[in-house]
């Protein structure tokens, strides 16, 4: 990037803080999984009890000395904090420990950088990284005051740090413009799917809940799936067929995590809008995870941030094969509506029930009715045929047609409006009594 960092390998010492505010406290086991997903070799894990963060180091000076000893003993290249560090805290800790120091946000950004496959994904990750690093440039230039002078070396009168900040701001603007273009392209694709009346089902859930495995099983695709955090970054869309619904788009999206850095939510907004614009959300939950309740809360929080919390949702409790005495089944609410399905994406158990529940939820707003049209309404009849809404038809002796229709209420309303009808008035006059 625009600044120098310590050269280092992957021998990492993890630092986890207990006793912090419950709202900012992190899960130590999840922290270990994050470090492993990033490719770190964990050589030591230090747990520190602290109720009030130190402005200088986050931790106390005694614990800094303890960390120094651990770095020397294990020849550590990297110290990772399971907490958000300020730029000055990172700089101060690196000065004392003489090795690289990153926080939880930096660790997640590194994983995202490794996982990004598509051009769009790489742009999104770079934007988040630049936003994060823009406040940390100063640490790379503590050895320089101003640019060198002399013939051929005179600069524009800026410090090197100011030059780098300007270059970084320009790069951020450039990436933002590119992502806006991607966003408009996605919006065009969504409008095309809307015009084609193809419903969209989006998989959401906590990272490593099994979304990609479920996606691969339902679509017979080969999207990268692994037992690691953030295995999927780039959204993938595939077409599937559902009974009584027909063609349906299934979208696999990035997993969520506790305290997902806000800059990542912003950078991935174009991707996350696939979920925000879906007709149905499949919220995949790891049924075997003891932390599943808090994971559900975190997912709902992020869905709220992107404006998707009020969309129709079907919960999919995955990995039922890891539970004792639990068989695949559908849970319904008081109205008899399917709200939760217990399945195993790995073994395929219960996926027929999931397809049944998806079709049911997508057809909640479906009208199945018989209408009688007058001979002069041939144009309206032709439009019903054009959108594939006619199940059967019979013609009376007086030339009137009885059409048995099955279509979304919104489609019927849109078609009738084009013909100058109000839906309630049309149903009242033309529905078969």
UniProtKB/TrEMBL annotation:
It comes from Halopseudomonas salina. PROSITE patterns: G_HFLX. The gene is hflX. This is GTPase HflX. The keyword Cytoplasm applies. Residues 158-192 form a coiled coil. The keyword rRNA-binding does not apply. Gene3D superfamilies: 6.10.250.2860, GTPase HflX, N-terminal domain, P-loop containing nucleotide triphosphate hydrolases. Belongs to the TRAFAC class OBG-HflX-like GTPase superfamily. HflX GTPase family.
